[in-house]
């Protein structure tokens, strides 16, 4: 099977401000163990897709960063001239990949997730690849551990394929982020999974789906594909992205498609949605504090203290997230972190503040 | 009258960490309006004691800083080879000053207080100088506004001298920092004042007092005075400080002396004891926040946000003091600031932490 990994590097990663910045989104940041999430993603799939068969889809401003950090070659890069959602990124990758290898199977991986253990992940990808080979559009679903309202859900039906303990099921319906009550019902009912945003499919099948469910964009893709390898290619990508709708692959294709399977993830998955995720991946001290960097504290409980340089000192505080990164310091009550985006919007509107984003 | 100002620059200023550091104590730091507390103190007394009649007593490590920041001349500096308390600093100054002008009147001023308005301060110094001329050891007492347990108190008796509204009283007793109950009694009784640590006296009278109440140290001072102006002077200061007791002038002399007066301060006095003092000297926003530097916040109340560079962002917090200065960040609940000293001790014991003090 001709497996290729397509690593989506489009995330803005605002939720890790001030460690992540607009010129260094979450996936490029070394939050965990000295490696960026992108490096970790690339290494995780390497055994099935060596780097020569990995494509990095990113905004063009990150080209140098990708070449420097990942030793990516120019031919591994798919550079977007504008920030659209996942549907355009995947459509563009599919067209490019299909020219290179019409029998390619695409493994689409967001570059900013944490997945362990690698072995189980690779086994699941193999199962998904078998299903993809059969013509299915395959997604990975994560068994929910709580009634989380921050994820989309997948309702699944009968088993389609099994390899050992790893199962693929027919997808009945994609559900958008639910309210708490609905999320609780999903959790209880047992046949709902979190939509992880990872996909496996044959390149011809996903293009066929674009044809059917996003016909206008598909026509643009076809026109673009005429220019591939020519001098007009760069201009054509610009035109493609000017017209491309900013929608997700879930919304544009998956929710409408019929030949969709979900592989129930046998691995631990974390989309590392923000600072609180650190608490899930770093040990806590006896007072429930998670610390990275040089920290001294008295009467400090349940805090996340992160300093990528200098020293952090805390006195008499509880339940705060404190981050010092470069020229910025953030202090937030844990539950208030959900408002970080609003605060960044405010900072963006300020002439002096803008340079810290 | 031959008035000379002796500015005590010995404060460690730990309570303004991390803005103040061991190599830049509080008095040298520009916390208020672009001038250091020391500069403000020097300017405040200038009309009565021009800079040529100001002596700066400081640890020798601050010689360059004093010369650079205050344009102090070498002959204005009295450099201590070790950190002892105020009694040695004042004894040394008195001996040096008495050689220069045996009729000198010393105005002893800690270099890290805020006093306003200047006019009232100068009037009070003039009254104190009259009393000093008569032979009294004069201190300034501040009318207590609360039962503060952080100050020493002065119990005063009958009026000795008055000029307009400014009065000098005979001191009955110096009281060490009281417990809350005692402080409340002092406040209620009406004849107690806060000990401000500022003094005015004739140089011969304070030396006489050293002779009587600290006879051993007085003998050392006499031996030292023999070396003044000679090449042996520097070594002699070292010896003097090796033997000098680390005690305050209050404890060593004032509490025992009999000819002590207190001038009731007609001015507003603040010894700027720590970060909370900022709230008394900077305007608050409508949520009770005091802000210095570039700050963005949502749901932030009653906080002190201080950043001398970069940006500070806060979310959903109340009653905290956040300071970012140079390579250090401090986040403290307001009431917990009293433990800052303990925390700094901990940091001092850490090999990595030490360099941030």
Would you write up a description of this structure?
The structure is a homodimer of 357-residue chains. Chain A has 357 residues and is α/β, with parallel strands linked by helices. Chain A has helices at 37-45, 63-70, 86-100, 118-133, 180-189, 203-213, 215-226, 233-243, 249-254, 278-281, 340-348; strands spanning 3-8, 54-59, 77-80, 105-110, 114-116, 137-142, 153-163, 166-175, 192-202, 260-264, 268-270, 290-301, 304-318, 320-325, 328-333. In chain A, the strands form three sheets. Chain A has a five-stranded mixed barrel with strand order 6-9-7-8-10. A four-stranded mixed beta sheet of chain A has the order 12-13-14-15, with no helix packed on it. The mean pLDDT of chain A is 94. The A-B interface holds A 17-18, 294, 296-299, 307, 309-317, 320, 322, 324, 326-333, 335-337, 339-340, 342-343, 346-347, 350, 352-353, 356 and B 17-18, 294, 296-299, 307, 309-317, 320, 322, 324, 326-333, 335-337, 339-340, 342-343, 346-347, 350, 352-353, 356.
Mean pLDDT of chain A: 94
Give a count of the beta strands of chain A, DSSP E runs of length 2 or more: 15
The helix count of chain A comes to 11
Shape of chain A: globular
What percentage of the residues of chain A does DSSP assign to strands (E)?
Answer: 25-35%
């Amino acid at each position: 099977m001709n497996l290729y990994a397509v690593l989506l590097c489009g995330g803005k990663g605002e939720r890790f401000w001030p460690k992540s910045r607009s010129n260094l989104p979450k996936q490029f940041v070394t939050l965990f163990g000295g490696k960026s999430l992108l490096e970790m993603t690339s290494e995780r799939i390497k055994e099935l897709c060596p780097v020569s068969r990995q494509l990095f889809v990113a905004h063009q401003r990150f080209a140098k960063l990708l070449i420097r950090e990942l030793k990516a070659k120019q031919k591994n890069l798919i550079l977007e001239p504008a920030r659209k959602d996942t549907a355009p990124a995947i459509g563009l990758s599919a067209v490019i990949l299909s020219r290179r290898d019409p029998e390619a199977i695409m493994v689409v991986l967001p570059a900013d997730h944490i997945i362990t253990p690698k072995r189980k992940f690779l086994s699941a990808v193999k199962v998904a690849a078998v299903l993809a080979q059969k013509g299915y559009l395959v997604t990975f679903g994560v068994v929910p551990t709580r009634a989380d309202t921050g994820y989309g859900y997948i309702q699944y039906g009968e088993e389609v394929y099994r390899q050992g303990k790893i199962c693929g099921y027919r997808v009945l319906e994609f559900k958008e982020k639910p309210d708490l009550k609905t999320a609780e019902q999903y959790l209880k009912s047992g046949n709902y999974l979190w939509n992880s945003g990872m996909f496996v499919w044959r390149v011809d099948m996903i293009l066929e789906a674009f044809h059917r469910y996003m016909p206008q964009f598909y026509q643009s893709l076809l026109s673009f594909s005429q220019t591939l390898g020519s001098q007009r290619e760069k201009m054509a990508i610009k035109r493609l992205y000017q017209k491309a709708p900013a929608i997700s692959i879930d919304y544009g294709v998956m929710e409408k498609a019929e030949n969709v399977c979900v592989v129930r993830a046998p691995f631990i998955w974390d989309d590392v949605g923000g600072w609180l995720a650190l608490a899930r991946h770093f040990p806590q001290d006896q007072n429930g504090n998670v610390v990275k960097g040089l920290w001294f504290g008295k009467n400090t409980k349940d805090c996340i203290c992160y300093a990528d340089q200098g020293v952090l000192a805390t006195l008499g505080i509880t339940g705060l997230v404190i981050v010092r990164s470069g020229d910025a310091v953030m202090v937030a009550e844990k539950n208030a972190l959900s408002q970080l985006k609003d605060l960044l919007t405010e900072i963006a509107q300020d002439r002096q503040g803008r340079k810290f984003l």
